[in-house]
Amino acid sequence: MFSFSAVVRRAAAPALRTARPYSVAARPRPSPPLDDGEQSIYDKLSQRFQPSELLVQDVSGGCGTFYAITIASTAFKGIPVVKQHRLVNDALKKEIQGIHGLQLKTIPQ
Questions:
Q1: Strands laid side by side in the 66-73 sheet
Q2: pLDDT tens, 28-79?
Q3: Which of 11, 60, 66, 72 could form a disulfide with 107 if both were Cys (CB 3.0 to 4.6 A apart)?
């Protein structure tokens, strides 16, 4: 039979695990070159918003039907998120016609 005090003592015991030191610093992996669809979207958004950060990734497995975009720009400052997304959608109107989905994250600077 368990008593409440025994359970509390077990839970309060200090953890004996220590962090394992790593001998090699994590190195950033070089990003692969953009495919044609990614490059087209990247160029258009770079031209329109002059972003401080822009990530365009085909997340459909390479068939170009679903893209994930993260964009940070001063153009979004003071604008509600819905309007920020509309600005991006308007800039990509032609490209959006040929894709199935778009994951969009806008960051005001």
A1: 53-58, 66-73, 101-108
A2: 555 678 889 999 999 999 999 999 999 999 999 888 899 999 999 999 999 9
A3: 72
**Angle, helices 36-49/81-91, rounded to nearest 10 degrees:** 120
Task: Note the Cα 23 to chain centre separation in Å.
Answer: 29
**What is the model's pTM?**
0.70
Paired tokens of 19: 């962090």
Residues 74/103, Cβ–Cβ less than 8 Å = no
Contact 87, 75 (CB under 8 A): yes
Length of the chain: 109
Name the DSSP class of 10: H
- Within 13 A of 1's CA, how many CA atoms are on the CB side? 1
Following DSSP, what letter does each residue of 13-49 receive, concatenated?
Answer: SPP---PPPPSS---PPPPPPP-HHHHHHHHHHHHHH
